[in-house]
Amino acid sequence: MRTLFFFLVVATSVSLNAQITKGNWLIGGNGEFTSQSFEFDNGSSSKREYLTIKPNVGYFLKDKFAVGSSLRYENFDSFNIYGVGVFTRYYFLNLEKQFNLFVQLHYDFTHTVSDVNSIDDNALNSSFYGIRLGQVIFFNNVVGMEFSLVYEKGNLQDSNSDSFKAVLGFQIHLSKN
Question: What span is annotated as the signal peptide, if there is one (predicted)?
Answer without folding.
Answer: 1-18
